[in-house]
Each structure stands twice: as structure tokens, then as C-alpha cells.
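Quick one, C-alpha cells below:
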């Protein structure tokens, strides 16, 4: 009843880990890599066989034989705990190739999820049950799995039809990727069904703290991170700059040159909107979270100066605001030798260009 089997396929040797096989993970280790059985078959040059159960061998036994032995044991012992027969290691009934999962893609605090044409990010710490726990962040809302199903696929079931990396949530619960709360759970997530409508971190700086929550979208902000800053005596109902911009009536289209020559005072909200987008993108970029990241990029340090100038009304025209942004981009491109920083700068330039054209409705 061995847990590791030396196996061969074609001209390649490897070690099959029985527990990983039965857990439907990549289970064969060879030449420093992990393989699914069908991948190891290709690695061994036997891809034309297209039947790994007979082309992968342990000693003189194809894996198919070990699988059949396991089936016999289950029948003989009437589904009782497995026992070895004639010293053969037992493999559970053969999973299909596509059922063998690389579990590493499900590590981390969040999971990308899809259902029909809908998509979002599932935050594990918010997950509870189908109807409790607003754990799926879409573009516009925090939703429970059942809410997400109703929006994306009303006739579906959340365990089966919400997928992450191709696997249904039901399977991820069985694999302990997600922890399902008990029916009588009295934790805050299960008890307060109307809570957690907004983000738990600031949309701009991506950190926790005393946050002001928008009443129209899931975003939340530190009062000093938002543009304009949120005053303490603000009324109970509050809308962030993104939502205010969304409700603004369309203005006549203009050329870029016309826009640049107009006083900032006429387009203060537009400039605040653009800068908030850049600050958000710079702080949530993966390389900004790497320990030792320099921060000299057009991120919080540099863009913070533009934010201060905008708050102090130091810009006369839109051109001056744009010039400062472009100067930061150019300085970062010429001074940075770090590929991650260069990539991030290029991405922010593209974000700024796209948002500028959209928000000003250029001809």
C-alpha cells in the first residue's frame, strides 16, 4: 500500500504520488516538474496513445490494472476502508484527465469567478453560504453567490454554475478551498445580511482604516484620499466622484486642443476623476505590492504632488494639469531601469489616455 510509485512512460521516469492522484491534483513528479497523467504521457513521447492508463507503468503493471484492483476491493469489502491486495498500491477509480486539478491556482485570498456572461472576484474571507456573505465583487456590486446567479444565470445553481478557473464552487468546497458556514452560524457575515455592501479597503490606497462609503457604488475611501476630500460635516447620503461623473449630462464634443486651453475651474471634477483613476491603478498594480518596490514610479509619491496642486488650485488650465502628469510619465520612463516599473508606467499612460478621451468626449 505504497504512497509513492516509480512510474515510466516512454523514455521518461517519474514518481506518482497516490494521495495527489486520488485528490485529482497534478501527481507525477519528473525532472523537476509536476504533471497530470495525460501530460506525463505527452512528456514521455506517447501522446499518440491518448490513453495514459495503459501507457504509464508501475513495474510491469499499467495504471489501468491498479485502478481495476481498487474497484475489486471496493466490491469485495462492500465499500469498507480500502485494503491492499497482493501488495498492490490502490488507486481510486480513474478520474478523467480534466478532473485532475492544479490546486495552486486556488491559493491566495481571492478567486476569479464567472457565471454565464457575468464575472467577478470572490473574496474567500467573506464567503459563508449561498445566501449569506456578500463575497463576490462585480464592477458595480458586492453579491452573495445566490445573488450572482440571479443576475448572471437565473435558472442555474450557484454550486454548479459559478466557476473559478473552470471548477464549480461546489467542488472547491469539497476540496476545502472555500469554507462553508454551518446553517445555524451566528457570525457577523451570516447574521448581518445587509452589511458588507462596500469595500473593506480604500479604493485609492488599497488599505484599511476609517472609511467613507459611497451610497451608490461599492467603493470606499479614506476622507483624505478622495478627491475632493470628504468633509466631516458631509450629509448622511454621499456619492463618490466616480458616481457623480457617471450622472453628469453629456457636453458638446470638443477637440483636445480646445479642452487643454480651458481653465481647470470648469473641469475640476474631470481632473479629480482622472487622478483618482491613476492613483487607484498605481496602488493596486501587482508590482506595487512587491517588498522593496521603489515607489519612484508615477505612483503615490509623484501623483501625490499633482493631487496637492489640484487641491490647492495651483493649475490655471487643463493643459498645466496634463503637462504635470505627462512629465511624471516621461521622467519615470527615462530614469527607471526596472522592467516592472517600466511596464507599470506604460500601463498608466494607456489608462490616462483612454480615460481622458472618454471623460472629455473628444472629437
Amino acid at each position: 500500500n505504497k504512497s509513492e510509485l516509480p512510474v515510466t512512460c516512454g523514455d521518461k521516469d517519474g514518481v506518482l504520488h497516490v494521495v495527489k492522484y486520488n485528490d485529482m491534483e497534478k501527481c507525477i513528479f519528473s525532472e523537476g516538474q509536476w504533471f497530470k497523467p495525460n501530460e506525463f504521457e505527452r512528456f514521455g513521447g506517447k501522446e499518440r496513445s491518448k490513453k495514459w492508463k495503459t501507457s504509464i507503468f508501475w513495474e510491469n503493471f499499467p495504471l489501468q490494472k491498479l485502478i481495476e484492483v481498487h474497484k475489486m476491493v471496493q466490491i469485495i469489502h462492500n465499500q469498507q476502508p480500502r485494503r491492499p491486495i497482493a501488495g498492490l498500491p490502490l488507486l481510486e477509480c480513474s478520474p478523467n484527465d480534466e478532473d485532475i486539478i492544479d490546486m495552486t491556482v486556488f491559493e491566495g485570498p481571492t478567486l476569479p469567478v464567472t457565471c454565464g456572461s457575468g464575472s467577478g472576484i470572490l473574496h474567500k474571507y467573506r464567503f459563508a453560504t449561498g445566501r449569506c456573505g456578500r463575497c463576490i465583487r462585480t464592477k458595480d456590486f458586492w453579491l452573495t453567490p445566490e445573488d450572482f446567479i440571479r443576475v448572471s444565470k437565473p435558472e442555474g445553481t450557484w454550486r454548479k454554475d459559478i466557476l473559478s478557473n473552470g471548477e464549480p464552487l461546489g467542488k472547491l468546497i469539497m476540496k476545502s478551498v472555500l469554507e462553508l458556514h454551518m446553517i445555524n452560524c451566528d457570525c457577523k457575515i451570516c447574521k448581518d445580511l445587509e452589511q458588507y455592501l462596500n469595500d473593506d479597503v480604500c479604493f485609492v490606497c488599497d488599505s484599511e482604516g476609517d472609511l467613507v462609503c459611497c451610497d451608490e457604488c461599492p467603493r470606499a475611501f479614506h476622507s483624505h484620499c478622495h478627491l475632493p476630500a470628504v468633509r466631516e460635516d458631509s450629509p448622511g447620503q454621499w456619492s463618490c466622484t466616480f458616481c457623480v461623473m457617471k450622472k453628469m449630462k453629456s457636453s458638446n464634443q470638443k477637440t483636445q486642443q480646445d479642452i487643454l486651453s480651458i481653465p481647470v475651474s470648469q473641469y475640476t471634477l474631470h481632473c479629480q476623476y482622472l487622478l483618482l483613476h491613476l492613483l487607484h491603478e498605481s496602488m493596486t498594480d501587482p508590482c506595487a505590492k512587491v517588498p522593496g518596490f521603489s515607489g519612484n514610479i508615477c505612483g503615490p509619491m509623484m501623483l501625490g504632488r499633482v493631487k496637492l496642486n489640484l487641491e490647492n488650485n495651483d493649475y490655471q488650465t487643463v493643459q498645466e494639469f496634463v503637462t504635470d502628469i505627462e512629465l511624471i510619465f516621461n521622467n519615470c520612463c527615462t530614469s527607471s531601469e526596472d522592467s516592472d516599473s517600466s511596464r507599470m508606467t506604460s500601463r498608466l499612460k494607456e489608462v490616462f489616455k483612454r480615460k481622458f478621451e472618454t471623460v472629455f468626449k473628444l472629437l
